[in-house]
Amino acid sequence: FTVTMNNGIDIKAPKGRSVRSVAEGVVEYIGSMRGYGRFVIVNHYDDYLTVYAHLHRIDVQKDDINA
């Protein structure tokens, strides 16, 4: 059993809609986990990370740079 904290905001998008990163960064991790479904973690440098969860499809790969 894993407990995670959500200190951010949740933004809902319609199924199938493209999701873009909030800022330039590097894809650090791609995975799947109960409670998050398919997700991507983007490192925006300076200890700033964003998590994009409940994704229908993932079109990036680890180490991709998002602008």
- Tell me the series of helices and strands, N- to C-terminal: EEEE
Number of β-strand runs: 4
Structural class: mainly beta
Give the C-alpha Rg.
12 Å
What's the number of helices?
Answer: 0
- Largest beta sheet: strand ordering: 3-2-1-4
Uncertain stretches: none
Q: How far apart, in Å, are the first and last alpha carbons?
A: 35 Å
Kindly estimate the percentage of residues that lie in beta strands according to DSSP. Answer: 25-35%
Described by the principal axes of the CA atoms, the overall outline is globular
Q: Tell me roughly what share of residues is in helical segments.
A: under 10%
Q: Largest beta sheet, briefly?
A: 4 strands, antiparallel
Mean pLDDT, nearest integer? 89
List the helices and strands and how they pair.
Layout: E1 25-33, E2 37-43, E3 49-52, E4 65-66
Antiparallel strand pairs: 1-2, 1-4, 2-3
Quick recap of the structure?
The protein has 67 residues and is mainly β. The protein contains no helices and four strands. The protein is globular.
Keywords:
mainly beta
Structure description:
This protein is 0% helix and 33% strand. With 67 residues, the protein is mainly β. β1 (25-33) and β2 (37-43) form a beta hairpin. The chain starts with 24 loop residues before the first strand and ends with a strand. The model has no long low-confidence stretch (mean pLDDT 89).
